[in-house]
């Protein structure tokens, strides 16, 4: 029987989780090694909640209680690398699932923001994220939509302060919790500047501060023979999502032109 990872359980039961549950999850996600050694009361204290709240959080994930939660954390640490064929199947399955989800997603609000923006500023919070921004910039350039990529920390903070509600910012992040992107998002919220974010974790500070957020569940599993290395995480799904968005933007533009002619 397949044992689900905590990330998978969070995604499966997300509609049952409240804000306090996500506070607990964020702490666990960012401190997995420490949590493997914590008691329920220690974890509760770290999250500023009660021990009962931690137990209820585990139960919402279909676990019997805190002990099952710790067992899952330990299994994730002790898992062995998976065969190459299984890894390939898992990645392909992930691509197909996300493709179906994005096919059904309504991109109209995102398309309106892009179409109506005077200036579009984009920022990636890491190496892969920056490459996603570059691809986004390349795709939309075909349609004569200019996206200005900002790379430096000081630059994004300075530029953000000059933007107006007629502009648009796009931020690509994984966790949505890095101090810089949160600081920028809060500044944009104060100024009324629209913000589109792409993140791995569905409930995060950046997403909460965004006008629109695209949640991208990435495939993650133990692939390496060297178990001291972190789990392999496939981030190509980000490129798939922005390509689907670009295609849907073309459909949106055609509909706009048809309405103007009509």
How many helices does DSSP assign?
A: 13
Low-confidence stretches: none
Please state the CA-atom Rg, rounded to the nearest Å: 20 Å
Please give the share of residues in helix: 55-70%
Order of helix and strand elements from N to C terminus: HHHHHHHHEHEHEHEHEEEH
Average the pLDDT over all residues and give the rounded result: 85
Cα separation of the termini: 57 Å
Instruction: Give the overall shape, derived from the CA principal axes.
Output: globular
Number of strands: 7
Largest sheet: 5 strands, parallel
Q: Strand order within the widest sheet?
A: 2-1-3-4-5
Secondary-structure-based class equals: alpha/beta
The amount of beta strand, in percent, is: 5-15%
Tell me briefly what this model is.
Helix content is 58%, strand content 11%. By secondary structure, it is of the alpha/beta class.
Topology:
Blueprint: H1 6-12, H2 19-30, H3 32-35, H4 40-47, H5 51-60, H6 66-78, H7 84-104, H8 108-116, E1 120-124, H9 127-141, E2 147-150, H10 153-160, E3 168-172, H11 179-191, E4 195-199, H12 205-209, E5 212-215, E6 219-221, E7 232-234, H13 236-261
Parallel strand pairs: 1-2, 1-3, 3-4, 4-5
Antiparallel strand pairs: 6-7
Helix pairs in contact: 4-5, 7-13, 9-13, 10-11
Describe the overall structure:
With 262 residues, the chain is of the alpha/beta class. 58% of the residues lie in helices and 11% in strands. It contains 13 helices and 7 strands. The protein has a 5-stranded parallel beta sheet with strand order 2-1-3-4-5, with helices on both faces. A two-stranded antiparallel sheet has the order 6-7. Strand 4 (195-199), helix 12 and strand 5 (212-215) form a beta-alpha-beta unit. The longest helix has 26 residues, at 236-261. The protein is globular.
């Amino acid at each position: 029987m397949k044992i689900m990872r905590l990330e998978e359980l969070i995604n499966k039961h997300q509609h049952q989780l409240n804000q306090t549950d996500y506070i607990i999850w964020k702490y666990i996600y960012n401190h997995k090694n420490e949590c493997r050694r914590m008691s329920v009361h220690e974890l509760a204290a770290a999250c500023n909640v009660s021990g009962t709240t931690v137990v209820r959080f585990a139960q919402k994930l279909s676990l019997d209680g805190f002990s099952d939660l710790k067992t899952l954390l330990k299994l994730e640490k002790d898992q062995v690398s998976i065969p190459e064929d299984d890894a390939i199947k898992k990645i392909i399955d992930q691509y197909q699932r996300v493709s179906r989800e994005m096919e059904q997603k309504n991109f109209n609000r995102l398309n309106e923001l892009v179409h109506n923006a005077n200036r579009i500023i984009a920022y990636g919070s890491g190496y892969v994220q920056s490459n996603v921004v570059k691809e986004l910039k390349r795709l939309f350039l075909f349609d004569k939509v200019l996206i200005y990529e900002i790379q430096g920390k000081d630059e994004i903070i300075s530029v953000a302060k000059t933007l107006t509600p007629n502009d648009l910012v796009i931020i690509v992040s994984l966790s949505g919790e890095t101090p810089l992107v949160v600081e920028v998002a809060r500044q944009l919220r104060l100024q009324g500047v629209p913000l589109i974010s792409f993140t791995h974790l569905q409930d995060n500070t950046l997403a909460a501060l965004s006008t629109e957020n695209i949640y991208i569940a990435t495939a993650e599993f133990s692939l390496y023979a060297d178990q001291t290395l972190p789990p392999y995480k496939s981030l190509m799904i980000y490129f798939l999502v922005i390509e689907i968005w670009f295609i849907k933007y073309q459909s949106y533009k055609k509909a706009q032109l048809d309405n103007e002619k009509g």
